[in-house]
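Appendix B, record 7
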Amino acid sequence: AIYPLNWAIRSALTFGGLKAGQAKKCLLYTKERVFAFGLALGEVDDLKYATGAGAINMGFPIIADSKIPEIKPSGITSYEALVSELDHKKIVARAIEVRGIKVTVSEIPIPVSYAAAFEGERVRKEQLYIEFGSKASLAFEYLTSKESDEVEDGKVEIFGPDIDETPNGKKSMPLAIIVEVAGRKMQKDFEPVLERQIHRYMNYTMGIMHVGQREMNWIRINQQAFSKGFRLKHIGVILHAMLHKEYGAVVDKVQVKLYTQQEDVEKLLKEAKKAYDERDERISGMTDESVDTFYSCLLCQSFAPNHVCIVTPERLGLCGAYSWLDAKTCYEIIPTGPNQPVVKGQISDNKLGQWQSVNDFVYSKSNKNISQVSMYSLMDSPQSSCGCFECIVAIIPEANGFMVVHRDYSGMTPCGMTFTGLAGSVGGGVQTPGFLGIGRLYILSKKFISADGGLARIVWLPKELKDTLGDKLRQRCKEIGHPGLVEKIADETQATNSEELLDFLAKVEHPALKLSPLL
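Structure tokens (predicted):
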């Protein structure tokens, strides 16, 4: 053991530019720059204790395979100084963790090509082998942090049949993607930030399409990727490699669990929704006026190259997965990432929600396609939309109001189009006055299309969406002085075309009918 310790000191002299006699600087160099550790195998005798003490003094922790008194973090080493690991299968992983060595996978071992060049690839119906989520099946993705001893780095488990075990002709399956991470610097606030990267990481895969987030995701695998050997386990391999590569500063271990049984997915989704709700509640109480900086999100430019999302405390990202706090956290972890600070500066139009600095930023990042954005209006320079929105707000001129339809509603709407039809017109990174992609919780915001009349303009909502917003929607209606508004907003049981809608609105005396004309 004395020889590697001698080499470590020589590295300080050779590569660190230190000189003999600079003992303290040499020891600091070996601690901070030489990522070595000691393995004490077998009985620890006096010689091993003495040599181990010298290694610890140089910043190298000792991992023993016998029961010995452990030395917790003391400042001499980065973390623990002396630990015991009796399982030889885990001893190397334990040593890597205790020394703080970061794992980076240089080449991801999957049977298809993997690169940013494939981001934005679409899998058409005629190319499809199998899909998960959207209208095809129940699916969701969820990332959570665990204690270190609960996570086995690199472990990928599949509970249920794989995609090569489906009956002939079956094109869809339920899927739950559960990613469990552990890290000494990992925080609860980082979870939604890391979770949202699943979208990007999967889209780097040739033959794979990923749209949406949380329980509104949509994943497609094409026939060519399947024939080359792509299976569900490779999703876990990709997520493990990329989270280590990009978020190694906070992530030490990653394990992935994939569930394809309907009952398992339903059960786990209930747990995931609790976490989603807790995340959404964190931002409550903050206002756009209480901060001097908004944040951008360019994560979806692979599908919509000119789209720029501006995330504020009172307007979450249109995907519904990114709040202002999430974007702020992401910037703090990766300053060069997709979330950048946008200093508000002086407001140019208080009603519409326009700031010159925000307009300048959007103009620059939209490839000079969008010169002006109103944060509080969908009639005057609305924010652009990509394809990941949870809901679409659409004008119904004859009703002098707006309807909102969410991704899970497949029926006809009073504007004469389904969600899918609307999405084809609204998405793509273009501004479409009168139409807007949003996260569903934006409906509950005080800034929700406030320049156009706000919540009082909503004349139609699918029943499922109305029930999901529930008491929070009723409370917002009370706050704006319309306590009975929820009952005056039509749903598909009362109207699916404009004639039925107008009859219903007149019958209940909806306030939108008395507001100033939209056009």
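Remarks on this record: Residues 391 and 406 are 4 Å apart (CA to CA). The first helix runs from residue 2 to 14.
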